Amino acid sequence: MSAGLPRLVVFAGLPGVGKSALSREVARALGACWLRVDTIEASLLAAGLPRSFETGLAAYVAASDLAADRLALGGDVVVDAVNGVEEARRMWRELAARAPAALRFVEVSCSDPAEHRRRVESRGRPTPPLPAPTWPEVVAREYQPWSEPRLRVDGIRPVTENVARILRELSA
């Protein structure tokens, strides 16, 4: 990471791979602001907006604007979102350039499809009124290949092990 710049650590991965557990603990360890896009979208729905592509996009935009405010104060930010498409990833790169901030992407996957499915089907509604995705929705979700470097972690590994690895990489 670049010395002197605030950090923008952006987590990515399909629902159920362990992004929230990891990003929350990384934010705690860094003393960073933790921005969870699902929480923002759930707030929009709770305010009476209908669920749509636009509310999902608005949640990303709101997270980016909140991150910009925190970075402007010199604080670190950890973002928890699927970030499955290039447009979302580009938004974070542009924010890091404008802020400026040291950007690091962390892609979380789950190498065990049966465990991934079990997690998705057993977790209930983590952020009411946002409905939890179904396994068929997760499998069908658009998730574009990456064209840039990122730290890749397997959510099947223990959270403490993955967090320690991520923190080591961020401090390198």
What's the level 1 CATH class? Alpha Beta
Radius of gyration: 15 Å
Instruction: Give the helix level as a range of percent.
Output: 40-55%
How much of the residues is beta strand, in percent?
A: 15-25%
What is the CATH architecture annotation? 3-Layer(aba) Sandwich
* Structural class by helix and strand composition: alpha/beta
Number of domains: 1
How many β strands by DSSP? 5
> What is the overall number of helices?
7
Mean pLDDT over the full residue set: 96
| Major pleated sheet | 5 strands, parallel
- Described by the principal axes of the CA atoms, the overall outline is globular
Widest sheet, order of strands: 2-3-1-4-5
Uncertain regions: pLDDT < 50 for 5+ in a row? none
Q: What is CATH's topology name?
A: Rossmann fold
CATH H-level name... which superfamily?
P-loop containing nucleotide triphosphate hydrolases
Query: Distance between termini?
Result: 7 Å
Order of helices and strands: EHEHHEHEHHEH
